[in-house]
Amino acid sequence: DPFEVPVGWDKLLVLDHGVTNPTAVLWGAVDWDGNLFIIDEHYEAGKTVSYHADQIKKRQLYNIKRHLIDPSCIAKTMQKGLELRSIVDEYRDNGLSFQPADNTVLAGLNRVNDAFKNDRLFIFKTCANTIREIQGYRWKKLKYTDTKNQPDEPLKKDDHACDCLRYM
Fold first, then answer.
1. Backbone φ, ψ for residue 78 (5° rounding)
2. What is the full per-residue pLDDT of the chain (168 aa) written as tens digits?
3. Fewest beta carbons less than 10 Å away: which of 9, 91, 99, 108?
4. Measured between alpha carbons, how far is 142 from 92 in angstroms, rounded to an integer?
5. 28 in helix, strand or coil?
């Protein structure tokens, strides 16, 4: 049974699109006190935009008001006939409209970290891929020891649901 979100909570959906990498979709709800609940996920690689759109539309029972997407998805990098197209255009053709999310990495990671530390972020145990990614999240390290500081950059691997959290 899906989680019934109380009336008045803000509900949002965030998507990180992938082809060979998984497309991650998280459904979130923010309560009256500003706590974020990750209530559902879709996580699958090797599928088309129309497939992912169908999976999302099957869960529209959450009555989502805001749809966010990885901002790189607005780039018009595909061609359909003579027209240049984006992933956002493809989702729109499949009945879903998205706004680009804020992709500021360090600030977003700081907000997620603060939410965890202050017990304001809750993830349902049914969101197994999100939980797995969080547990495996790592920072880049220098290959050799030298006088440089460690980089303030995450290791960009298996972080698709984590990116969705950051966008939220």
1. -120, 155
2. 456 788 889 999 999 999 999 999 999 999 999 999 999 999 999 999 999 999 999 987 677 889 999 999 998 887 777 788 999 999 999 999 999 998 887 777 778 888 889 999 999 999 999 999 988 765 545 566 666 655 555 445 567 898 899 898
3. 99
4. 41
5. strand
